[in-house]
């Protein structure tokens, strides 16, 4: 089968920090301005001035995606370093306080803060977004409906935000708890057709809930402007390798659902409330808890379910050329722990020294 339509696009959000204090620090868009001279529109400002967002081009395969993310991470690191900043990737900063962070000077962000108030001001979090290309929006919706079930499994592998404002939160991903304060977040509903989906968006616009479709911030969405399914549930990973593994896994799940569809088969659709139960468990325990296997109606070890997911996508990995990236990458995360597990290990080994945790985060940014 030709899976050429299933292109990849990856967006990451990075922390900009002070090399001395390790606190988040406003870069006054200097990094963005300098980086745009080198990587053009692949870099942009975010709402908080201590955040830099990057995005790849449309990548035909995982190797292109790897090279592109590597280039982005290298470029931002070098430019930040030249300007006197340091860079790291984690879903939350271990100890910086959102109350002290500056908002980027842009009407769009002021408008958002005016509407959302402290929900927006405190939204100092760093995510990974993966776009998987689709042949058309009808297929995109079909795949989005089906892959919702697997969101908690992949999310568990990405967990990388155990600390918030200087505390060990007890969660492997506290980033999602912070983002929950926003409207239109979390696991999306099931939609019977692309028309139903579009009408839902039109209703929100008509009733002034939103002014454009990008203000639907679900964990997964049929993109309003591109023919892609956009996965938004993951914390930004510590390492480039983890980012590529997660992107390849999302791509493989989409292709597997597509393959089933071409054989007149479908993956069973579970309702949003059930998938949410698993998302909560993944945010709390990462890969070390249990998720619910809805088919068996019982709790199952999260790692066992992730191995089942690898079996589920196994027959499309060779066609995509991602077997080693997916299987070796996922097995490495299961063996070594997620970003959250690694941060917590440093925290414990240093007697609770969060500065050392930040140093570790920075050390993992480039391979």
Average pLDDT over all residues: 96
Q: State the helix count.
A: 14
The biggest beta sheet reads:
7 strands, antiparallel
Question: How far apart lie the N and C ends?
Answer: 34 Å
The string of secondary-structure elements, in order, is EHEEHEHHEHHEEHEHEEEHHEEHHHH
Specify the overall morphology: globular
Structural class: alpha+beta
Low-confidence runs: none
How many DSSP-defined strands?
13
Strand proportion: 5-15%
Estimated helix fraction: 40-55%
| Rg, Å, rounded | 20 Å
Polypeptide structure, described:
With 367 residues, the protein is an alpha+beta fold. Helix content is 47%, strand content 15%. It has helices at residues 30-39, 62-82, 107-116, 118-121, 137-147, 151-158, 175-179, 194-206, 240-262, 272-285, 302-320, 323-336, 339-349, 354-363, and strands at 8-17, 43-45, 51-55, 86-88, 127-133, 163-164, 167-168, 185-186, 217-218, 220-222, 228-235, 290-293, 298-301. The strands form 4 sheets. Strands 1, 2, 3, 4, 5, 10 and 11 form a 7-stranded antiparallel β-sheet that branches. β8 (185-186), α8 and β9 (217-218) form a beta-alpha-beta unit. α13 (339-349) crosses α14 (354-363). The longest helix is centred in the C-terminal third of the chain and has 23 residues, at 240-262. The protein starts with 7 loop residues before the first strand and ends with a helix. The mean pLDDT is 96.
């Amino acid at each position: 089968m030709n899976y050429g339509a299933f292109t990849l696009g990856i967006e990451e959000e990075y922390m900009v920090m002070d090399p001395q204090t390790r606190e988040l620090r406003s870069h006054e868009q200097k990094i963005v301005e300098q980086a745009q001279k080198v990587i053009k529109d692949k870099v942009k400002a975010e709402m908080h001035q201590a955040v830099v967002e990057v995005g790849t081009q449309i990548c035909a395969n995982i190797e292109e995606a790897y090279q592109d993310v590597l280039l982005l991470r290298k470029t931002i690191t070098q430019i930040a370093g030249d300007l006197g900043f340091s860079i790291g990737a984690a879903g939350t900063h271990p100890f910086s306080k959102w109350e002290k962070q500056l908002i980027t000077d842009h009407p769009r962000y002021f408008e958002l803060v005016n509407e959302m108030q402290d929900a927006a001001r405190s939204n100092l979090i760093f995510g990974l977004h993966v776009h998987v290309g689709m042949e058309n929006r009808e297929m995109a919706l079909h795949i989005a409906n089906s892959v919702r079930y697997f969101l908690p499994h992949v999310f568990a592998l990405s967990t990388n935000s155990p600390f918030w404002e200087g505390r060990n939160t007890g969660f492997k991903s506290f980033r999602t708890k912070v983002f929950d304060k926003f409207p239109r977040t979390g696991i999306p509903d099931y939609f019977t057709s692309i028309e139903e989906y579009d009408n839902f968006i039109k209703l929100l616009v008509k009733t002034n809930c939103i002014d454009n479709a990008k203000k639907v911030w679900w964990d997964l969405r049929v993109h309003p402007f591109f023919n892609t399914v956009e996965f938004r549930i993951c914390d930004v990973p510590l390492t480039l390798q983890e980012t590529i593994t997660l992107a390849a896994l999302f791509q493989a799940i989409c292709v597997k659902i597509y393959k089933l569809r071409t054989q007149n088969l479908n993956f069973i659709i579970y309702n949003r409330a059930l998938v949410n139960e698993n998302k909560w468990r993944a945010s709390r325990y990462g890969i070390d808890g249990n998720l619910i296997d809805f088919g068996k109606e019982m709790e199952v070890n999260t790692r066992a379910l992730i191995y089942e997911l690898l079996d589920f996508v196994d027959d499309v990995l060779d066609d995509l050329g991602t077997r080693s990236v997916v299987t070796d990458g996922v097995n490495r995360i299961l063996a070594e722990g997620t970003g959250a597990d690694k941060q917590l290990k440093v925290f414990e080994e240093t007697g609770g020294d969060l500065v050392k945790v930040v140093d570790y985060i920075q050390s993992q940014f480039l391979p």
